[in-house]
Protein backbone atom coordinates (compact mmCIF):
# COMPACT_ATOMS: atom_id res chain seq x y z
CA UNK A 1 0.00 0.00 0.00
CA UNK A 2 1.49 3.35 -0.99
CA UNK A 3 0.92 6.76 0.61
CA UNK A 4 -2.05 7.70 -1.56
CA UNK A 5 -3.75 4.36 -0.98
CA UNK A 6 -3.14 4.70 2.77
CA UNK A 7 -4.78 8.13 2.85
CA UNK A 8 -7.74 6.87 0.84
CA UNK A 9 -8.14 3.93 3.22
CA UNK A 10 -8.02 6.15 6.30
CA UNK A 11 -10.49 8.68 4.92
CA UNK A 12 -12.81 5.86 3.90
CA UNK A 13 -12.69 3.94 7.19
CA UNK A 14 -12.44 6.70 9.79
CA UNK A 15 -15.16 9.29 10.51
CA UNK A 16 -12.79 12.17 9.89
CA UNK A 17 -13.99 15.76 10.03
CA UNK A 18 -12.50 16.36 6.59
CA UNK A 19 -14.66 13.58 5.12
CA UNK A 20 -18.04 14.17 6.76
CA UNK A 21 -17.71 17.85 7.60
CA UNK A 22 -19.46 19.66 10.41
CA UNK A 23 -21.42 16.54 11.42
CA UNK A 24 -18.21 15.15 12.92
CA UNK A 25 -17.88 18.06 15.35
CA UNK A 26 -19.06 17.32 18.89
CA UNK A 27 -19.61 19.98 21.52
CA UNK A 28 -19.62 17.53 24.42
CA UNK A 29 -17.35 14.85 25.86
CA UNK A 30 -19.50 11.84 24.94
CA UNK A 31 -16.84 10.20 22.74
CA UNK A 32 -14.08 10.84 25.29
CA UNK A 33 -16.21 9.39 28.09
CA UNK A 34 -17.05 6.32 25.99
CA UNK A 35 -13.36 5.77 25.22
CA UNK A 36 -12.48 6.12 28.88
CA UNK A 37 -15.23 3.63 29.81
CA UNK A 38 -13.94 1.16 27.21
CA UNK A 39 -10.45 1.41 28.72
CA UNK A 40 -11.74 0.79 32.23
CA UNK A 41 -11.56 4.44 33.36
CA UNK A 42 -7.80 4.49 34.07
CA UNK A 43 -8.01 8.13 35.16
CA UNK A 44 -9.93 7.03 38.27
CA UNK A 45 -7.16 4.68 39.41
CA UNK A 46 -4.60 7.42 40.06
CA UNK A 47 -4.79 10.27 42.52
CA UNK A 48 -3.43 13.31 40.75
CA UNK A 49 -2.92 17.02 41.18
CA UNK A 50 -2.98 19.11 38.01
CA UNK A 51 -1.26 22.49 38.38
CA UNK A 52 -2.11 25.07 35.72
CA UNK A 53 -1.74 28.78 35.30
CA UNK A 54 0.58 31.46 34.03
CA UNK A 55 3.32 31.66 36.65
CA UNK A 56 4.65 29.46 39.44
CA UNK A 57 3.74 26.01 38.16
CA UNK A 58 7.22 24.55 38.55
CA UNK A 59 7.80 25.76 42.10
CA UNK A 60 4.24 24.91 43.16
CA UNK A 61 4.52 21.41 41.69
CA UNK A 62 7.83 20.74 43.41
CA UNK A 63 6.53 22.08 46.72
CA UNK A 64 3.46 19.83 46.52
CA UNK A 65 5.59 16.81 45.61
CA UNK A 66 7.85 17.48 48.60
CA UNK A 67 4.87 17.81 50.94
CA UNK A 68 3.31 14.57 49.72
CA UNK A 69 6.65 12.72 49.92
CA UNK A 70 7.18 13.94 53.49
CA UNK A 71 3.68 12.67 54.33
CA UNK A 72 4.67 9.22 53.05
CA UNK A 73 3.05 9.24 49.62
CA UNK A 74 4.78 7.90 46.52
CA UNK A 75 4.92 10.73 44.02
CA UNK A 76 5.69 11.26 40.37
CA UNK A 77 6.25 14.67 38.86
CA UNK A 78 5.91 15.62 35.22
CA UNK A 79 6.39 19.15 34.01
CA UNK A 80 5.78 20.26 30.46
CA UNK A 81 8.68 21.56 28.37
CA UNK A 82 7.65 25.18 28.96
CA UNK A 83 8.41 24.87 32.66
CA UNK A 84 11.10 22.19 32.43
CA UNK A 85 14.08 24.56 32.79
CA UNK A 86 12.97 25.96 36.14
CA UNK A 87 11.68 22.56 37.25
CA UNK A 88 15.03 20.90 36.52
CA UNK A 89 16.86 23.61 38.40
CA UNK A 90 14.57 23.09 41.39
CA UNK A 91 14.86 19.33 41.23
CA UNK A 92 18.63 19.35 41.02
CA UNK A 93 18.94 21.35 44.26
CA UNK A 94 16.47 19.21 46.21
CA UNK A 95 17.72 16.67 48.74
Can you describe this structure in just a few lines?
The chain contains five helices and no strands. It has 95 residues and is mostly helical.
Task: Tell me what you see in this structure.
The protein is built from 5 helices and no strands. The protein has 95 residues and is mainly α. α4 (57-70) packs across α5. Residues 83-95 have low confidence and may be disordered.
Topology (elements, then pairings):
Blueprint: H1 3-13, H2 17-20, H3 30-38, H4 57-70, H5 81-93
Helix pairs in contact: 4-5
Helix content bin: 40-55%
Mean of residue pLDDT values: 78
Number of helices in the DSSP assignment: 5
**Proportion of β residues?**
under 5%
Show unreliable segments: 83-95
Q: What does the radius of gyration come to?
A: 21 Å
Distance between the termini: 54 Å
Query: Rough shape?
Result: elongated
Number of strands: 0
Q: Helix- and strand-based class?
A: mainly alpha
Order of helices and strands: HHHHH
